[in-house]
Specification:
The protein is mainly alpha-helical. The chain contains two helices and no strands. Helix 1 packs antiparallel against helix 2.
Amino acid sequence: MSLPTHGEAYHQLIEHLRLGQEAASMLAHLRRAEGDAKGRMLADGWLAVSEGLKRMQSVVITIASGRLN
């Protein structure tokens, strides 16, 4: 059994954020396809979640690469 490393933990976190971003984006697409006002509103919310997760992924990459000032 190996010891966990910082790199592995960052990689796992980035991967989970990416998967969450993809899932939120898919939910936005599916809700928008419903075509009603409620579906469009929920789609906008899921799109915002997707964009937030993408920004968080970028922040984690910046921290992991040591470029945080």
